[in-house]
Amino acid sequence: MVKRYISKFYMILMFIFLYAPIAVLAVYSFNSSKSRGAWGGFTLKWYVELFNDRDIKSALYYTILVALLSALISTIIGTISAIGIHNMKHKQKALILNINYLPILNPDIVTGIALMILYLSLNLKLGFLTMLLSHITFGIPYVILAVLPKLKQMNKHITEAALDLGATPLYALRKVLLPQIKPGIITGFLIAFTLSIDDFVISFFTTGSGVNNLSMVIYSMARRGIKPTINALSTLMLAVVLGLLLLINKRSSFDKKHVKKVGK
Amino acid sequence: MKRKFCLLIVLTLIFTTIFTGCKNSGDKAEIKVLNYGQYIDKTLLTEFEDKYNVKIIYDIYPAPEDMYTKVKAGGTDYDVIITGEYMIERMINEGMLAKLDYDNIPNFEFVDEKFKNQPYDSNNEYAVPYFWGTLGLLYNTKAVTEKVDSWDILWNEKYANRILMMDSQRDTMAVAFKKLGYSLNSTNEQELKEVKQLLLMQKPLVMAYVVDEALAMMIAEEADIALIWSSEAASAMGSNENLNYIIPKEGSNIWIDAMCVPATSSHKKEAELFINFMTSKESTLKNIDELWYSTVHTEAVKEVEEFLFDNPAFNPSDEDVKRTEMFRDLIDEIKVYNKLWTEVIAD
Amino acid sequence: MKNKAKLLTYPYIVWMGLFIILPVLLVFLYSITFNEINNIKTISFTINNYKMFFTPVYIQVTLRSIYLAALSTIICLALGYPIAMIIANSKMTSKSILLLLFILPMWMNMLLRTYAWMTILGNNGLINTLLANLGLPTLNLLYNNGAVILGMVYNFIPFMVLPIYTTLSKMDNSLIEVSEDLGANKVQTFIKVIFPLSLPGVISGIIMVFMPAVSSFVIPKLLGGGKDALIGTLIEKLFSLGDWNFGSAVSIVMMFIILLSMAVMNRFDVDKEGGAGLW
Q1: Is B206 helix (H, G, I), strand (E, B) or coil?
Q2: What is the pTM of this model?
Q3: 3-state class of B215 per DSSP?
């Protein structure tokens, strides 16, 4: 019982740590002064302005589109590759993994400029596609790192047993392997999505023709002080996601109760 | 779990589509404009689009160096770029810009002679000035009660840990050059050595080397003195009345941001139309109202609001301006500056 | 099965060749040449870029970066492991919610979050205002290594928690039961059973935190005040100033150092898989 209180207390502390800056950010979305340095009174004008800003709208659209697509594609490629890597011999495995670490390790500006030169020498026009490709490139290594531990942990004989019992490899993959590594796949997706949303440097060098993401808009604002409209947008995004979470949570707990009753 | 995620994804997609709406594109001519972030009154873009039936694709960059890297690599097709004079000089030298046809830019006559034919573009063939400014000191009059008129105050131990310098090599080095009485474009080995020594001596007193944060830090009174561009200073003084801006007596840097057309532009005529539109009195006044940057426009300056006109950051005295010097593109010598600066911050 | 499954990696190997190896080779090429590479005929090679790196100033920068990144990684592990355990042990429905709540702050832009930290840590920031109101002496919280470590821990801790959580969740509970049946107490069960089973997750977490922390530049630049350059800020500076040759050399040296240390860790990992190992 005491242990439960301690862990609850610890979680609350951690959530305060995680959300303290977010709270500051949200409070400043209601600040009528334009500067982060001074409080000028309560206002909603930034929220109004937000809906009239065409650049922010299109940036938001591209940010979410690129994040979802790149996370999805990296998760698929990353999971498949992780299964392959897991079954490799040690030397090969070490080599592949080391190369896999490079995008994680390289500073963004190096990756960004190198990819830009690559696209240009391939005669690709900088834009949505090149940005998406870049995001997939830095997403996959993280997905592999998220999926591999789950594979290592798995009982090797389970898939073999399934195959021995006559399952086709595809069936074994779908019914035996994937359910086992599912937590890894989900966290891999989440990590790839998070990284894509936050990327600025690589996006800047690999995009063009009016395709901007939110990070680019925000970093380019830094010189003159970031407009509170961005804070308003972030607060709104946070509220939407939290609302969705609450909704899903309510629904699933409702479903459970419902199922239980019917079950009885 | 899977179902929940699908639901989440679908909902977000719906949310974004509703929020952003559909995009419509006609057969209008299109120009691509590249500018610093937050360096234009955005209603001007829409105004131009409606007035001339030309669509604008507007992109932004965080720093001139990043812009240069990208444009130089050849992956872009911008029609108008707005950037700093030393960068324009470099782009002219490397043949990256197109000569302007001034028949399409009649408003050029309103640009103050002071800003025409400057060394970066000596016959003014390539660029039309946009805004200008100086480098100086922003200080808090509550904390700094003595008379501030010299760079020396940045070496005063009284303000240890209350000084913000710039994480921008040329600007921070310019201070040291001027304090020593040298040109801020010097490549003299001995002079550079002295500059390095001076900057290393100052380092223990410096609170931080920043670029973008000085504005907010000074408004919040987190620091007492900051090396800053006049444009940021004007904006800071608007939010905190304890702040004051001066250009030290040893002299300082003057900068001009200008509009230019890359050699690769395929819509040069529309680009010049845009430059002309931005140089009109009405557009300039709108822009000043939003940005508080010092204007190059001889007519617009007469109609600037009084509080702004009297601000030394917006409108420095002629004597102050006389003591300023413009950055030149140093071509390969810049590597010496790079090395010196990285060694100062790495030490 | 094993041989066929290996084939699954091949598409990614092609991808890596194009999007990872080719760019790194380009960086390497820059590191051993002068100026820009415009024309194959005018390329001239040099090792000066590497020579320049191996001077006390830059070695100090490298060591400082590794030290700060390692310290941040250790703190992330110490703080993150319990979180992963708590999430993994919570009820099914709250599990996914907790997980999402944990990563949600990271969906707000990093620059905004870091600016928010500056508002909290500044001389007139929230913490110091609170201290002053309580009559306590104020602290210098911003623009030092402590602030950099705080920023790194804050930004990277989800990448430590997530992989550990995955290895802890759906863990074979029978092993834990067996251990308890055999008379092991909770601590012993943790040390002998749970922790070893989660080790692959811990290793993934360490890699996902340490590697980006070594080369990070936004956090040290904003929270550290740019006074003590780290290798990430140095490379960023060199590249944005247009000195790609020296910048590339610094990047290559950094890759080499980190991958070498990873190889050492990999060996440790291989031992683990052998079954016997340390425990």
Answers
A1: strand
A2: 0.87
A3: helix
